[in-house]
Structures are given as structure tokens and as C-alpha cells.
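This part of the workshop introduces the protein records we will be handling. As an example, a complete record with its sequence and its C-alpha cells follows.
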Amino acid sequence: MKNQELIPPPMNGGTQPQALKSKVSFQAIPAKKGSRIGLYGSAGIGKTTLAAASKGKKVFFDLDGSLPVLKEQMPPSVLSQIAVVSATSWQEMLDSLNADGWDGVSSIIIDTLTKAEELCVSHTLKTVPNDKGRFVPRLEDFGYGKGYVYLFDCFLPLLQALDNHCRAGRNVILIMHDCTATVPNPAGDDYLRYEPRLSSPASGKSSIRLRVREWLDHLLFIGYETTVDSDGKAKGGRRVITPIERPFCMAKSRLLQSESELNLNKNIIDQII
């Protein structure tokens, strides 16, 4: 907020009317609201189970249909804290998030954001015509990268809706599948690493992947600790959560500084929400 004060009249005794001058006011650092957490890794590694086991009442957008399969493995104490929103289209997702009735919910979980982006692609193709006023079957058919610009614009309202929930004190957990991407390296050879499976044009412009990374407070990569024996054979071991950027994965955290083993009894999500 800005306060206003009167500017004193000219020293020469003129009759210039007094004008208003704004004055900045300062506030203390506000209290922490909801956390924005991203989980990604290979299929079946435990992303959904980890999110489901976090504390508090949780509402799932179960777009991948994981919960009906996993619920047989979940204890009643976890199942009793889970509810599901039925949304099968992009617009239904946005309408649900912008509706009333979220009081008492601790965390909103989208499983997966990779699938949600697919719904956003379908929505974009159905609602955005090309320069000739025609609808096209693929984003690439818009030409000159315009399709990914339109997709990016259609995607942003989801983050805006989730921001509103965070300001209301609810946590947001975005689960994503993984992919490998080539990272340009100005200091040497380019290299491959794991990244969330979201659209990211080569130019970096209109990249949903990069925008989501910026938006999140924590982006956690879940992978297997792999060793290579003397015969060159890879052996997978324990599941490890990486919260900071490594050459092999995209990650970030505002709080966590070291890798840890995936442990449902010491849920890493509960440490940061």
C-alpha cells in the first residue's frame, strides 16, 4: 500500500496548487502459505504412493487412474484422508479448481500433470483456430511454433488457479512422468539428463516444463540408485529422492539440500509442507 503526503508550496511564494506525492509503506515478511511441490520419475517408482501418504486431507485429480489399483496397498488411515475429483477434460479441471467447497483440504494433487497437459493440448486444438480460421489436428500444424505458444497460453490459467489455492493455505503436489533431454553446455559437450515430461520447445520460449519448474517451490526427482559392475551391467538399488540440481536430473528445493531414500514412514513431503 502507498500513503500520500502533500508537497509543500514553492519557496518563492507562488500560488501553485499543492500536489499529492505517494509514499511507500513497508510490511513484515508474510506468513508462509501453501507449498508447491513437484514429483517426477519413472512409472511405478512410488510417486503417487508418496503423495498419498503425506499428512492431511488430500484431493486427487486422478487423471492416470492410479488410485483404484493402488488403494489395495494403502492402509485405512491413508485411504480415509483421500478424495477424488472427477474431471476428464481441461475445462472440467479448471472449473473444479475455481469452484467453492475446498475448505478443510490440506493438499491438491494432480496425478499426473503430464496427462493434464495432454488434456490441455486437446482443449487448445478444439478452441484455437489457425490464421485461416480453421482448426488443425496437431500443434505443429499451426506453423512457426505458434501451436506451442497457444498451448502455453491455455496452460497458464491452471497455475493461476493453483496459486489461489496456495494463497488460501492449501498445498499443491504435481506428479509428472520423466523423460530424457539434451542440455546445451557452453563449457563443454552437451549431455543428457532426466527432466519432467512436459512440452519444451527447443527455443525455450513457451516452455511449460521450464515455467512449471520456476513456479514450484520444490521439484523432486525420484530415481533408482544405480551402480555399474565390472562387466558393465547396471544394477538398480534403493529409491532415492534428489532435491537439488545434478548433472543427471533437473531439480530444485527452497529447503532441502541433500538426497534421501524414499521412506513412507519419514515422508519427505511432510518435511516441507
